[in-house]
Amino acid sequence: MKISILGTGSIGTLFAAIFSRSEHEIHLHGRGEHLAMIATNGIDVIGEESFSVSSQRFELTFDEAGIPSHYDGSSDVVIVAGKARSIDPLSKIAAKLIKSDGIAFAITNGLGNAERLSHELGIHRVVYASTTHGANIPNASTVEWAGKGQLNLAISTKSQSEKLNSFCDSIAGTGINCEIREDGRSMVWNKVLINIAINPLAALAGVKNGDLLETEMFANAVFTMIEGANVARAEQIDVGTNQQLEEVLRHVLVSTSSNSCSMLEDLKEGRTTEISVLNREIVNRGEKLGIRTPLNNMLASIIELITP
Predict the structure, then answer these.
(1) Do 36 and 152 share a domain, yes or no?
(2) pLDDT at position 202, please?
(3) Domain end position, chosen among 120, 154, 182
(4) Stretch 104-128: mean pLDDT
């Protein structure tokens, strides 16, 4: 089996390193200094586990040079791991790489990723996905495994069931911890609710995830999450009770206490954040449904004001 990972940010680099412990061919596509350093030095993983992967373990292609034609239709699984703003161009690359009977999914934060992928690849080749693994890039060719989690996948059509089971079985023991869920939309929404509660608050306060467990910060995170949950319920999405959501949020903050969320890292580097597909998307959907989301609106507005 050949797995293509599109995007060499923190989570894409981490997944590439972890998947290298399987027997599969691993193709990594990205751009810039980080990928160039991977081509020279391989990947060093620190944090939850420490190990190194030689550059020879990967097939590398650079966005700046394009992808050779012999990669066309060669990948059984394509994983889009770029930021939300890169979903559309990476979807076009995924369409070039994927086999006619392959599967693809995005482990990018936010709502609507599976739908955007389906526009290019067709719904029959796209599955819902979310991950709770935490990762950071402290320097080029090094990735910190900041929190162990799992990869959750859910089919969008019945024909994908066998392929998805085969994929999860094939990566057992690598450390990814793949689980197949029944309700893809609920799965993605539950991840988004965690993201809207943690990312903007941690980013604006300049703190790691675990610091949000402080009483007042945690209360703000919970209230922000509940606003989003009310929007989800209005869209007929089952996200559980408020008490269940609060318990999950506390568990995530404890298990990723040392992690600096991606929005905080983006803020530090002056990059565009994913606020448009997180809190701002909650606000937009709430407005259409007549549901007030003042905390999400405030957080989105502040992040938008101070970032490109």
Answers:
(1) yes
(2) 97
(3) 182
(4) 93
Tell me if 308 is assigned to some domain.
no
Domain count, the chain: 2
Sheet holding 43-47, edge to edge: 51-53, 43-47, 142-147, 134-139
Phi, psi angles (nearest 5°) of residue 214: -60, 140
Q: Would the pLDDT of 308 be above 90?
A: no
Residues 160 and 252 in one domain: no
In a domain, 199, yes or no: yes
Rounded Cα distance, 282 and 202, in Å:
18
Q: Which residues, other chains included, contact 125 with Cβ-Cβ below 8 Å and sequence gap of 6+?
A: 98, 101, 102, 103, 104, 160
Residue 178 sits in the same domain as residue 248: no
Q: What is the pLDDT of residues 254-304, one digit of tens each?
A: 988 888 898 998 999 899 999 999 999 999 999 999 999 999 999 999 999
In a shared domain, residues 161 and 17: yes
Give, in order, the Cα–Cα distances in Å from 33 to each of 7, 30, 44, 46, 64: 13, 10, 15, 19, 11
- pLDDT number for residue 253: 93
Q: Residue 19, CB half-sphere, CA atoms under 13 Å: how many?
A: 26
Structure token pair of residue 278? 């997180």
| Domain co-membership, 178 together with 191 | no
Instruction: Give yes or no: residues 294 and 155 share one domain.
Output: no
Domain that residue 145 falls in: 2-182
Q: What is the pLDDT of residue 27?
A: 98
Which residue, 254, 259, 243, 114, is CA-closest to 186? 114
In angstroms, the CA 197 to CA 249 distance is: 8
CA atoms within 13 A on the CB side of 215: 0
Q: In what order do the strands lie in the sheet with 128-131?
A: 128-131, 151-154, 178-181
pTM of the model: 0.91
CA 284 centroid distance within chain = 21
Neighbours of 211 (CB within 10 A): 15
Per-residue model confidence as pLDDT tens digits over 163-172: 899 999 999 9
